[in-house]
Amino acid sequence: MRLSRSLKCCKHQKSLGGYYLHEHPKESTSWSEKETLEMVEQPDTFLVQSPMCRFEMMLPDDDGNLGHVRKETYWMTNSEMIAEELRGVCNNYVPGEEPHRHVHLIGAARARAAQVYPPKLCEAILRGLKR
């Protein structure tokens, strides 16, 4: 029901000439729902993937040491510029970039904390919107 309501809001925003941004973890079953697939197949829809560690999402591990949260995420939008800002890969796979350690999202508190967008992610979304 929440997914359907969210997609309805995206469609409404688009019908008004605005942009929408829909996000769920890559592994979420919502990406295989009929209603989501229909939106993804629209010619003006962009579906991109990026890990949250790219935007410096960090949480403490079991010992209290901060580590990056990988959390591969799909982003669906009708803004090509927002899609460009969000598309990417973990720095651990980019030659010349400094590798980092990932924290596993095991436990409800850690997974819940990973729902909060880090500032660099918000900045990327706003940069795309501004462009």
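^ that was protein a. below is b, sequence first then the tokens
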Amino acid sequence: MEHVLIVIPAYNEERTISAVITDLRRYVPEYDRVVVNDGSRDNTSHVVDSLGEKQIKLASNLGYGWCLQTGIKYGLLRGYGVIVSFDADGQHRPEDVRGVVQALLDNDADLVIGSRYCEGFPYSGAFERRLGQVLFSHLTRLLIGKRIYDTTSGFKAMRATVCETIVDRSFLDFHIETIIRLGLSGYKIIEQPIIVRERVHGISMHNFTSVFSYPLKTLLLILIAYIDVILLRRKS
């Protein structure tokens, strides 16, 4: 049986982190957990400490990509075979974790994406966001020959071998550019249906400005990832 670590990036999630940890303990007590506190300015750190959870405290807010990268490095250094990324805002359901990990093992996959859309569910949110989701989904089919329906999911299960190939890439945001990089490198990627709950507390990382900035940033990261893989192929 693989040794599994759940990495929980957290930024200002004092109102949700306790329930997330409590439910993870309930539904997957056999999996280890670590909270990566991304320089939270509220009481997230105190709540996690009061629960006795392992916590990595970053000195400042570095952003989701660097935060998750820290948790992955922690997992690799401690020899975990599977690393799961799981959001701290309460939108992911802890009862779905075992299914995502099992899909990784049963299908001999390298990366499993907990997907809101792979069972034909319609894209949700504002029109601009739905449009971006559809376009990026089709872009994966164009670049790696396989359509990934939920390219922005923060709920993933990854083998350690996959983590080792991406953890030191400073340009990664661990979304579509990572999917494309791994797909181009020959890794097996699949999606596992999950249910995502509505955010009740906290502030989403996506706002009016990000509607325009996020797609541009993502396209740049995809281009860099694509060039990086091509250059590595030429060297080998």
